[in-house]
Specification:
Layout lengths: L5 H6 L20 H9 L2 H6 L1 H14 L5 E2 L6 H5 L5 E3 L3 E3 L7 H6 L5 H4 L1 H14 L5 E6 L1 H10 L7 H9 L1 H25 L3 E6 L7 H19 L4 E6 L6 H5 L5 E3 L6 H8 L4 E6 L8 H15 L4 E5 L9 H18 L2
Parallel strand pairs: 1-4, 4-5, 5-6, 6-7, 7-8, 8-9
Antiparallel strand pairs: 2-3
Helix pairs in contact: 4-8, 8-11, 9-10, 9-11, 10-11, 11-12, 15-16
The structure holds coproporphyrinogen III (CP3).
Coproporphyrinogen III binds next to strand 3.
C-alpha cells in the first residue's frame, strides 16, 4: 500500500485533498547529490546499474519532497536496444554515430527481446520499489516513437530535426516501418516496466510540436495511440506531447488518463480543447524557476488557480534546467503543497 497515492487518485479521476506535484527531469544536474555520482560514473553506467539508478531516482523524493518518483533512465535506451549506438557527450547531448538514412540502415536494426536487452531497467524498478517502501508512486516512461525517430534519423539533437522530417517526407514507407518497429518495442518495454512495478507510465513526445497538426496525426499520434491501447487497461498512462496543443482533443480520444501541457498554452484554453474530464499536467515555464522565490510563489499560485484545483497534476511544462537552484525547486513544490490545500477547500 502507498502512503501517498495522490497522483494515482487524481489520474483515476478522483477529487483529492490537494494537487500532487512532481517535476519532469527531477533527477538531474541541478542536484549536487546527482553531480557527485555524475563525476564517478558514465551516463549509461548510471542507467544500467540498478543501485545507481535507484539512488538517483530517490534523490528528488528525499531532497525536494515530490509526490512521485520517476525512474532514472533515458528515452534513448530503446534505440540502443534496437541495435543503434548511442553516446552521451557532455555539453553536446546525445550522439548516434550511425543514424538511419536508408533501407539498408533499417535492416541493421532488430526488434529486441526486451527481457534480455532492457532487463537492467526492470531490475532497477524492482530495487526502487523496495527502497521507496510505499512512500510515493513510481512513474515509468518511454519516448514516443516520433521523438525516438527524430534522434535515430538525425543522429543528434536539433532545433528543427530537419533531416528526420526529410526522411519522413521522402521515404514515408520506411518511416512508417521504423515507427512501427519502435512502437512494438516500446509496448513490450512498458509492459515490462509495469510488470516490474511502476504505477504510472508517461510517454514523452518532446518533439511532437515540431510537426503540423496533420503531420502529428500521421507520424506521431497513431503510434502513441497503439501504445495507450496496449497499456491503458493495466496501468495509468500520461501523454506529454510538447507543443502539440492543436491535437489535445485527439489525444483525449486515445483514452489516456492524463495529458501534459507546456507553458505556451494557457490552462483554461487547454481545458477547453481537452474537455472537462481528463487530467491535465503542467505547465510552469522551467525558466521561471530562475525568478526570485517570492515571484515563483506568486506564479505557482496563479498556475494552480488557472487550472481550477481539480483534475490537475502540478509540474513544469518541460524538464527542469540544470542552472536552477535546489531552493527554487523546493519553492515550486512547497507552494503547490501549501497553497493547493487551501484553494481546493
Ligand atoms: O525525469 C527524470 O528525472 C528521469 C530521468 C530522465 C532523463 N531523461 C535523464 C537524463 C528522463 C525522463 C529523460 C527523458 C528524455 N531524454 C527526453 C524526454 C524529456 C525531455 O526532456 O524532452 C529526451 C528528449 C531525452 C534525450 C536526452 N537525454 C537529451 C537531449 C539529453 C542531454 C541534454 C540534457 O538535458 O541533459 C539527455 C541526457 C540526460 N537524460 C541527462 C539526464 C539526467 C543528463 C545527463 C548528464 O549530463 O548527467
Amino acid at each position: 500500500m502507498l502512503q501517498n497515492d495522490l497522483l494515482l487518485r487524481v489520474l483515476r479521476g478522483e477529487k483529492t485533498e490537494r494537487t500532487p506535484v512532481w517535476m519532469m527531469r527531477q533527477a538531474g544536474r541541478y542536484l549536487p547529490e546527482y553531480m557527485v555520482l555524475r563525476e564517478k560514473y558514465g551516463f549509461f553506467e548510471r542507467c544500467q546499474t540498478p543501485e545507481l539508478a535507484a539512488a538517483i531516482t530517490l534523490q528528488p523524493v528525499d531532497i525536494i519532497g515530490v509526490d512521485a518518483a520517476i525512474l532514472f533512465s533515458d528515452i534513448l535506451v530503446v534505440p540502443q536496444a534496437l541495435g543503434l549506438e548511442v553516446q552521451l557527450i557532455e555539453s553536446k547531448g546525445p550522439i548516434l554515430p550511425n543514424p538511419i538514412k536508408t533501407i539498408n540502415d533499417l535492416q541493421r536494426i532488430r526488434i529486441p527481446e526486451v527481457d534480455e536487452t532492457l532487463n537492467y531497467v526492470f531490475d532497477a524498478i524492482k530495487l526502487i520499489k523496495q527502497e521507496l517502501n510505499g512512500r510515493v508512486p513510481l512513474i515509468g516512461f518511454a519516448g514516443a516513437p516520433w521523438t525516438l525517430l527524430c534522434y535515430m534519423v538525425q543522429g543528434k539533437g536539433s532545433k528543427t530535426f530537419d533531416e528526420a522530417k526529410a526522411f519522413c517526407y521522402t521515404q514515408p514507407e520506411l518511416a512508417h516501418q521504423l515507427l512501427q518497429m519502435i512502437t512494438d518495442t516500446t509496448i513490450a518495454y512498458l509492459k515490462g516496466q509495469v510488470k516490474a512495478g511502476v504505477d504510472v507510465v508517461q510517454i514523452f513526445d518532446s518533439w511532437g510540436g515540431l510537426l503540423s497538426k496533420e503531420d502529428f496525426e500521421t507520424l506521431s499520434l497513431p503510434y502513441i495511440d497503439q501504445i495507450v491501447q496496449a497499456l491503458k487497461e493495466e496501468t495509468l498512462v500520461i501523454i506529454f506531447a510538447k507543443g502539440a496543443w492543436y491535437s489535445l482533443k485527439e489525444m483525449v480520444a486515445t483514452g489516456a488518463h492524463g495529458l501534459g501541457i507546456d507553458w505556451c498554452i494557457a490552462p483554461q484554453i487547454a481545458r477547453q480543447f481537452a474537455g472537462s474530464n481528463i487530467v491535465l499536467q503542467g505547465n510552469f515555464d522551467p525558466a521561471k524557476l530562475l525568478s526570485p522565490v517570492p515571484v515563483i510563489e506568486q506564479e505557482v499560485k496563479k498556475m494552480l488557480k488557472d487550472f481550477g484545483g481539480h483534475h490537475h497534476i502540478a509540474n513544469l511544462g518541460h524538464g527542469i534546467l540544470p542552472n536552477v537552484s535546489v531552493d527554487h525547486a523546493k519553492a515550486f513544490v512547497n507552494t503547490v503543497k501549501e497553497y493547493s490545500l487551501v484553494s481546493t477547500e
